[in-house]
Design goal:
Length: 152
C-alpha cells in the first residue's frame, strides 16, 4: 500500500520553508500531495490561489512523487478522498506546536485512520513565515530569497 501524505496549508505564499518540508518528506512517503486550502480563519488571500498553484507546480515540476491541488473542505475529508493516511506538517517553534497539537487532535477525531507527522524546521529556514513575506512584499520589499520560485 502506497504511503501517501497530504501537506495542507494556506501557502499564502508557499515559501522555501514549505519546500524544505516537502522535499524532506519524500524520504518518508511514496507520494506527497500539497493541498492549498481556503482557510476559514484567513478569509482573504494575498496571493491568488491559481497563481500560487502554478508556482508550486513549477517548483516541483521535476518531482513525479509530488502533486499540487486546491481544496475548500475539511482536511480530514480531503485526506480520505485522496487515499492519504498521513498529514505532513512543519514545526518552527512552540507557537506552531500549540496550534498543530490542537489541529492534529481534531483531525484524528474526524478521521481515525489519519496520522499527523511533523518535521522540525531546518534552522536556516526557521524564521521564514508567509505572514512576514506578505508584509514585506506589500511595502515593496524584496522577498525573492525566501521563495523557491520567481514572483514575476
Ligand atoms: P496554515 O495556514 O494551515 O498554518 P501555512 O501555509 O502557514 O498553513 O503552513 C503550512 C505548514 O507549514 C504548517 O505546518 C507550518 O507550521 C509549516 N511551516 C510554515 N513555515 C515553515 C518553515 N519556515 N519551516 C518549517 N515549517 C513551516
Amino acid at each position: 500500500m502506497k504511503r501517501i501524505a497530504l501537506f495542507p496549508g494556506s501557502f499564502d505564499p508557499f515559501t522555501k520553508g514549505h519546500e524544505d518540508i516537502v522535499l524532506r518528506g519524500l524520504s518518508l512517503f511514496d507520494e506527497i500531495i500539497v493541498a492549498v486550502g481556503y482557510n476559514s480563519g484567513k478569509s482573504q488571500r494575498y496571493f491568488k490561489i491559481d497563481f500560487m498553484l502554478e508556482r508550486i507546480r513549477q517548483t516541483f515540476e521535476n518531482q513525479p512523487a509530488i502533486s499540487v491541488i486546491t481544496y475548500s473542505e475539511l482536511t480530514a475529508e480531503l485526506a480520505k478522498r485522496e487515499g492519504a493516511r498521513f498529514l505532513l506538517r512543519g514545526l518552527r517553534n512552540t507557537t506552531d506546536f500549540e496550534y498543530e497539537n490542537s489541529i492534529a487532535q481534531i483531525n484524528r477525531k474526524l478521521n481515525a485512520e489519519l496520522e499527523s507527522v511533523f518535521l522540525i524546521t531546518s534552522p536556516n529556514l526557521a524564521a521564514i513565515s508567509s505572514s512576514i513575506i506578505r508584509e514585506v512584499h506589500r511595502y515593496g520589499g524584496d522577498v525573492s530569497d525566501l521563495l523557491p520560485y520567481r514572483l514575476e
